[in-house]
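#structure-requests
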Amino acid sequence: MFWMSAFLDVPAPDFERSVSFWSAVTGYSPSARRGADGEFLTLVPPAGDDHLRMQRVGDASPRIHLDLHVTDARAAADRAVALGGVQVVDQGYVVVRSPGGLSFCFVSHPAAQPAPPASWAGGSVSIVDQVCLDIPGAIFDGEAAFWQELLQWPLKASPYAEFERLVRPDGQPLHVLLQRVGDEGPVRAHLDLACSTRGLELERHLGLGATLVAEHEQWTVLDDPAGMAYCLTDRAPQPDLGRK
């Protein structure tokens, strides 16, 4: 895998305001629409290659799925199935479900240069740079092993018992965090932002239409206008800021 991007799959009634919200949150411009019904778009950063895309869906609830960019989608999908995934679709790109039920796609779109963080009025700096997989505790070990083997990224423990991390290689736009949750049902995912000043970012996001869900020691949980959860974190948006 040479790149990872995240797709925000948003129900049709909330799609346009979600596009406006995430464009404002990131500072990325919506691309021209594509797809048979104009259901796809990319959030294009001012510099670097994109890693966030959006899809209008007919489902009742929003969700995140991942695109794994590879040179041979068919071979990569076969390997994922051998590791315990389930193939869903093969139509140039291949859709697979993880053992815990999280959908992801193998695609071949080129990309190589991560976008830099964005600077905002008031001095805050932020970037969407992490996807967190929310994994029911009963299946955590198996699901974590699947993603570690699939991505071939080293697994690292976290100071928080409910988290483990896959160590992102240099040049990748997204970290992968694994979280044990008490919910039953399929694995889901949410996006996290690295923030230089979480309080300033919280004010900015609330002003753009986010809803505060919960405050924690090192992160804040919000809902976007479509009701999709995401987090602001105290992780450094730039390596030279010193925090992890």
